[in-house]
DNA sequence: CGGAAGATTTCT
DNA sequence: GAAATCTTCCGA
């Protein structure tokens, strides 16, 4: 699995390296795993879109102030969990939101968890993949250099196969909403669906 | 202590 | 296009 050192870097660097890697959850019912195909970097104190903007430290953001390689979980809109990877050294509260996976292992369990037989619909969104992989608030702060939940080397994605776009649903973040800190694997079918929100035309 | 809003998903 | 649903944060 990826070691501690891998995570102790700038979130934007770690994010690009995480594309193509395998997120693995060891559950009582078996192994559930998927390849990371889409994610977003949140850069902490200087990033108006980040929960840790201006070094806001609270019971929710606390884990981001430790060193990288731990899970940051939170509930959004009162109903969906999101899984994030904490990065960089202690006191640099950066994190990466994992937005989509390509199902690899435990697909039958995923289908049951998601109540859907459509492979595309199992993990193509941050809330969906948490449901499919049985990840929730109980995994807050868990060490990704441990057995239960970890990330394995799998594929390496070359720069020319990485697409960078603005992040999704952070219109409140001022100029930070335009930063190209969302990354996904070019042409991958399991990337989350484009927002149906109005997009400013060129 | 009250209120508002959210790093989303699903159904109509 | 809008509802579902509740934690978190901020201001009073």
Keywords:
single chain, 14% helix, DNA-binding, alpha+beta, globular, 4 helices
Uncertain runs are none
How far apart, in Å, are the first and last alpha carbons? 43 Å
Helix content: 10-25%
Cα-atom radius of gyration: 16 Å
Instruction: Sketch the major β-sheet.
Output: 8 strands, antiparallel
Question: What integer is the average pLDDT?
Answer: 96
Proportion of residues in extended strands? 25-35%
Order of helices and strands: HHEEEEEHHEEE
Based on DSSP secondary structure assignment, what is the total number of beta strands? 8
Class from secondary-structure proportions: alpha+beta
Tell me the overall shape. Answer: globular
Task: Provide a brief overview of the structure.
The chain is of the alpha+beta class and 202 residues long. Helix content is 14%, strand content 28%.
């Amino acid at each position: 699995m990826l070691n501690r050192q891998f995570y102790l870097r700038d979130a934007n660097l770690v994010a690009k390296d995480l594309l193509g890697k395998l997120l693995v959850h060891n559950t009582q019912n078996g192994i559930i795993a998927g390849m990371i195909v889409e994610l977003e970097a949140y850069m902490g104190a200087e990033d108006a879109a980040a929960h840790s903007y201006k070094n806001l430290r609270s019971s929710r953001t606390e884990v981001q102030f430790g060193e990288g390689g731990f899970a940051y979980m939170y509930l959004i809109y009162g109903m969906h969990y999101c899984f994030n990877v904490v990065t960089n050294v202690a006191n640099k509260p950066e994190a990466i939101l994992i937005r989509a996976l390509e199902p690899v292992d435990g697909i039958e369990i995923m289908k049951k968890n998601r109540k859907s037989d459509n492979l595309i619909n199992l993990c193509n969104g941050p809330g969906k993949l948490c449901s499919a992989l049985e990840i929730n608030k109980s995994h807050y702060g868990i060490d990704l250099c441990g057995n239960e939940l970890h990330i394995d080397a799998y594929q390496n994605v070359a720069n020319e196969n990485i697409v960078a776009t603005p992040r999704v649903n952070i219109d409140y973040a001022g100029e930070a909403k335009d930063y190209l800190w969302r990354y996904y694997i070019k042409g991958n079918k399991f990337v989350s669906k484009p927002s149906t929100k109005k997009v400013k035309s060129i």
